[in-house]
Amino acid sequence: MTAEYMHIGIPVVNKKPHMIYNEWGHFWVNEKTDAYDYKIEYLKFEEGSPFPEILSKQPHVAYKVDNLDPYVKDADRVIFGPEKLGDKVRLAFVVKDDAIIELYEEKA
């Protein structure tokens, strides 16, 4: 298993400058999370989002993984997914040791 740190996701109540709208997920997110050293992803969820409410209230840590299945199996609880986002990407949110973790799998 290989996990590479991607970002920390922090929910916000008010939309910040330079946020873009994700129509599929019904949320706003800042552009270019990887563009600065802190790698913070600010998220403002809208009504109708398929994501669980806990993501709009608590931060999460995101990892790019080679295969999310073993991580999902090892989780204390799965709160979203695994969900296919196109042909090559799968996404899941899990709880492990009281932390919310985003698992992002992208196949070549």
What structural keywords apply?
108 residues, mainly beta, 2,3-Dihydroxybiphenyl 1,2-Dioxygenase, domain 1
> What is the CATH topology descriptor?
2,3-Dihydroxybiphenyl 1,2-Dioxygenase, domain 1
- The first-level CATH class is given as Alpha Beta
Beta fraction: over 45%
Strand order of the largest sheet: 2-3-4-1-5-8-7-6
What's the mean pLDDT score? 91
**How many whole angstroms does the radius of gyration measure?**
13 Å
Instruction: Extract low-pLDDT stretches.
Output: none
The CATH superfamily bears the name 2,3-Dihydroxybiphenyl 1,2-Dioxygenase, domain 1
Oligomer: single chain
Number of domains: 1
Question: Count of helices?
Answer: 1
Strand tally is: 8
Helical fraction: under 10%
Which shape, going by the Cα principal axes?
Answer: globular
Largest sheet: 8 strands, mixed
Under the CATH scheme, the architecture is: Roll
* Structural class assignment: mainly beta
> SSE string, helix = H, strand = E?
EEEEEHEEE
Overview of this structure, please?
There is one protein chain. By secondary structure, the protein is mainly β. It has one domain (3-106): 2,3-Dihydroxybiphenyl 1,2-Dioxygenase, domain 1 (Roll), CATH 3.10.180.10. Helices cover 6% and strands 49% of the residues. It has one helix spanning 68-74, and strands spanning 3-11, 19-22, 27-30, 40-45, 60-65, 77-84, 89-96, 99-106. The longest helix is centred in the middle third of the chain and has 7 residues, at 68-74. It is globular and about 35 Å long. The two termini are 17 Å apart. The model has no long low-confidence stretch (mean pLDDT 91).
